[in-house]
Amino acid sequence: MAQRGRPGLSHDLKQEVWRRWRSGESLSDIARAVNSQPGSIFGILRLHGGISPAKRCRAENSLTLSEREEISRGLSAGKSMRAIATDLRRSPSTISREIARNGGAQRYRAIQADEKAWDRARRPKLCLLALNGRLRRTVTEKLALDWSPEQISGWLKKTFSDDENMYVSHETIYRSIYIQARGVLKKELQKHLRTQRIFRQSRYNNLRGIPRGKIVDAVSISERPPEIEDRAIPGHWEGDLIAGSANTHIATLVERKSRFAMLIKVTGKDTNTVVSAISRHIKRLPVELRQSVTWDRGSEMANHKDFTVATDAKVYFCDPSSPWQRGTNENTNRLLRQYFPKKTDLSVYTQRELSQVAKKLNQRPRKVLDFQTPADTLQQCVARTD
User: Are 374 and 361 in contact, with CB atoms under 8 Å apart?
Assistant: First the structure.
């Protein structure tokens, strides 16, 4: 079993993960960029509390790999430690300790010695809160009172203005909470943070301030007018994403009265990508056919206000874990599995191909429509409103 937080990504790919995370990309987009799974990216981020680890570098006076290779070659040639030290312009004691800690002259290997040196350098340095017990206890007490790290930092500077040993930045407090490898502040203190996040978010995150599973200013499905509920007039849609392999998705929209379906290619699950894609398709419809859209509580519609501004269509949100409230869309998604079985890579389909599948679905007679097709039913609805 792979170790948690180490999904097999190379050092360079892990650096790319952190670069994209700092720039505010979603887990889905990062996973797609490095050809991994969102769960693996989540493991990397959570292992470090969402805080990118400091770039590791050698101390100026430490031996380099090339110097260790010179030591290995010198030993193979039968040179003395003093002679090797002279060639490298190093102290003989440095060479002696290097060889002794890596198996002696007969077992010394440059690459293995270099890897061990890096491992020894991984030992975490004690942070300010670990070194100052009084400061640590004070911070812990204030966190337990639901004070934010920023409030604690500001209060400490004002209260202990004459004692710089009691100063600590809010970022240090956050790091001590989220990076549990430090073992300074208990993980349980996270529950006292207002956001309830399990790791530190990027300051550029597109969904900053939106807790998981919640949509800001969401209008509940319970507030939908009666004419939407009884399918009296056309132009009201239900939407969702269907998922494929490798974190790929297709957006689906189904008109409630006619069951007319649209399939929309999306390159990511983040709210900017999804809202932009469905807005472009909705705006191609006549005004009378873009009245409202009902969606679930997925964060892909967090930018619902932008969608409404762009399309003039209102957005209503289902109750959490209530897929039956979008029954028309759920049923259509099941029909689409005929064309897109589970674990299919949905990114390979072009918009043209998706539209062809939607056309097939819209030209099939439906029992619920008295065996008329969704395309004909929608056309009749539009004709009546002209």
Answer: yes
Question: Are residues 261 and 313 both part of a single domain?
Answer: yes
Residue 41 and residue 92 in one domain:
no
376 and 294 within one domain: yes
Domain extent, residue 88, equals 65-120
Describe the crossing of helices 11-22 and 38-47 by its angle, rounded to 10 degrees: 80
Q: Are 256 and 346 in contact (CB under 8 A)?
A: no
Q: Which of 205, 239, 265 is the last residue of a domain?
A: 205
Q: Would you say residue 58 lies in a domain?
A: no
Residue 214 within any structural domain of the chain? no
Residue 52 lies in a domain: no
Within a domain: 290 = yes
Sort 257 into a burial class: Cβ within 10 Å, 0-12 / 13-18 / 19+: buried
Q: Kindly state whether residues 170 and 296 are assigned to the same domain.
A: no
Beta bridge partner(s), residue 241: 251
The answer to whether residues 205 and 52 touch, using CB atoms and an 8 Å cutoff, is: no
pTM of the model: 0.52
Per-residue pLDDT of the chain (386 residues; tens, 9 = 90+): 334 444 467 778 888 888 887 777 777 778 878 888 777 787 787 776 666 666 666 777 888 889 999 999 999 999 999 999 999 999 999 999 999 999 898 899 999 988 888 777 665 566 777 788 888 889 888 888 888 888 988 999 999 988 988 998 888 888 777 765 455 676 667 677 766 565 666 555 544 444 444 688 899 999 999 889 899 899 999 999 999 987 889 999 999 999 999 999 998 888 889 999 999 999 999 999 999 999 998 888 999 999 999 999 999 999 887 888 999 999 999 999 999 998 899 999 999 999 999 999 999 999 999 999 999 999 988 877 66
Geometric angle at alpha carbon 200, from 188 and 211, rounded to 5°: 85
Give the pair of three-digit tokens for residue 249: 């998705």
Q: Are residues 134 and 77 in the same domain?
A: no
